[in-house]
């Protein structure tokens, strides 16, 4: 267990260009289609429409500053391209890598919990929007001018196009403001609730545009959690009419230990030149990040974080949040998030979870004398590099007692949380699944 997080950081610091170079060389690869798809003999007209639901940070996001914006510095007062409309790209913008501008990014991305509303809102003077809802366009690259380093779903979409999927006809994308999450029922969650409403309408119109065929939902990461909630909050007759199958990629059903590191010390998404403490406040403020803290139901009593003073299991999350200096997160966590993570509701549609595995994933964090401002020693366990195996398998475990088990897990070893969208062996599995779902319903098996 010699390979600690510290050493990894050291390695990356020694060669700050290396991770970027690695990204540069991940080109989309042509994929040989498995025979099952060709055997089905379906033309694209027969395909079930496909709706893509991205993960956190998995789509472009725009912002606009109004006169209420209070920049923390002169730099932030002037940073950001203000075109005629005032809208500019906030995610992903490479200037976030310049420390002075990282600060501007963080203050603009910050969410605020308003106790009087019992809900989250943007920072004062910052408007955000997601453009091109309904199209897969905004999911392809996080920045269309930096295609090679910000490829997100481009390879996956390209692969689906080879099957006969066409954006806007039978292929759709549902980008969203991923900083927001959902709350347990009875608590308002304006942005997240609007999103699942919009997604629901997109599903209905996708079906209508394709002869009333029910849709296949294909999510990545956090998108799986939103989609599960959408299904749980819809009637069973709606689900029968509109949803053929739900395929999830890398869904963190019960959160991740990595998220505790993010809350305690900030996390730079593996970009070593960003100071994690510069983005920590913004990351703590994100409602969806709170949703991704390890769920007590799955992680149990195991100590996940150990400091010089004590250890914290997933059950100790309120104390953990207070001790890291994020006391304001305790109330929304306890009232809005914790009840949401207590249950993974059955949704009565078949689900396939495609997951990575066998990749070192943060499982225990050890903080020394320096406290939470210093990156911890990390002990790794099984997972996809971001999500722990127990979380990736949590839906299957939760539904194990179900009378009609409808969840299937496909594990692809050596594939990490995001490369599942690009890796050849993962794509082969995903294509196989999408083809099989389509083939079954064309009647080729029934005849
Ligand atoms: C440990 O406890 C001391 C005394 O209460 C406190 O000052 C310190 O911040 C704590 N350290 C950590 C890492 O929790």
From TrEMBL:
**The organism of origin for this protein:** Canna indica
Q: Which InterPro entries match?
A: AB_hydrolase_fold, LACT/PDAT_acylTrfase
Q: What name is this protein filed under?
A: Lecithin-cholesterol acyltransferase-like 1
Q: Which SUPFAM superfamilies match?
A: alpha/beta-Hydrolases
Per the record, the GO terms for biological process are: lipid metabolic process
Q: Which Pfam families match?
A: LCAT (PF02450)
Q: Would you say which domain of life the source belongs to?
A: Eukaryota
Q: Which GO terms describe its molecular function?
A: O-acyltransferase activity
Provide this UniProt record's keywords sorted from A to Z: Acyltransferase, Transferase
């Amino acid at each position: 267990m010699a390979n600690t997080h510290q050493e990894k950081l050291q390695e990356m610091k020694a060669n700050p260009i290396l991770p970027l170079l690695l990204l540069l060389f991940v080109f989309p690869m042509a994929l040989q289609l498995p025979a099952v798809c060709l055997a089905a003999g379906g033309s694209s007209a027969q395909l079930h429409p496909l709706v893509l639901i991205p993960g956190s940070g998995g789509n472009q996001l725009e912002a606009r500053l109004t006169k209420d914006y209070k920049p923390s510095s002169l730099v932030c007062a002037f940073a950001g391209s203000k075109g005629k409309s005032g809208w500019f790209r906030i995610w992903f913008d490479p200037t976030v890598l310049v420390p002075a501008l990282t600060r501007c990014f963080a203050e603009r991305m910050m969410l605020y919990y308003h106790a009087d509303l019992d809900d989250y809102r943007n920072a004062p003077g910052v408007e955000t929007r997601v453009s091109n809802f309904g199209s897969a366009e905004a999911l392809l690259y996080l920045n269309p001018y930096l295609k090679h380093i910000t490829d997100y779903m481009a390879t996956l979409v390209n692969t689906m196009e080879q099957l006969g999927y066409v954006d806007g006809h039978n292929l759709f994308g549902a980008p969203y403001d991923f900083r927001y999450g959902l709350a347990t029922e009875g608590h308002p969650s304006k942005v997240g609730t609007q999103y699942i409403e919009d997604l629901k309408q997109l599903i209905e119109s996708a079906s209508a545009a394709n002869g009333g065929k029910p849709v296949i939902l294909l999510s990545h990461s956090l998108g799986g959690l939103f989609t599960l909630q959408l299904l749980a909050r819809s009637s069973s007759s709606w689900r029968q009419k509109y949803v053929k199958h739900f395929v999830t990629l890398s869904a963190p059903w019960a959160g991740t230990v990595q998220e505790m590191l993010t809350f305690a010390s900030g996390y730079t998404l593996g970009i070593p030149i960003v100071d994690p403490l510069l983005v920590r406040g913004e990351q703590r403020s994100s409602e969806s990040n709170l949703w991704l803290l390890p769920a007590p139901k799955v992680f149990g009593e195991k100590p996940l974080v150990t400091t010089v003073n004590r250890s914290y299991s997933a059950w100790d999350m309120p104390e953990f949040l207070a001790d890291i200096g994020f006391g304001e997160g305790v109330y929304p966590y306890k009232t809005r998030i914790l009840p949401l993570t207590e249950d993974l509701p059955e949704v009565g549609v078949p689900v396939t979870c495609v997951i990575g595995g066998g990749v070192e994933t943060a499982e225990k964090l050890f903080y020394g004398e320096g406290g939470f401002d210093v990156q911890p020693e990390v002990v790794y366990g099984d997972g996809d590099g971001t999500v722990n195996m127990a979380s990736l398998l949590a839906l299957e475990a939760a539904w194990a007692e179900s009378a009609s088990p409808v969840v299937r897990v496909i594990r692809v070893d050596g594939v990490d949380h995001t490369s599942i969208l690009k890796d050849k062996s993962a794509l082969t599995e995903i294509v196989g699944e999408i083809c099989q779902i389509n083939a079954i319903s064309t009647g080729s098996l029934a005849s």
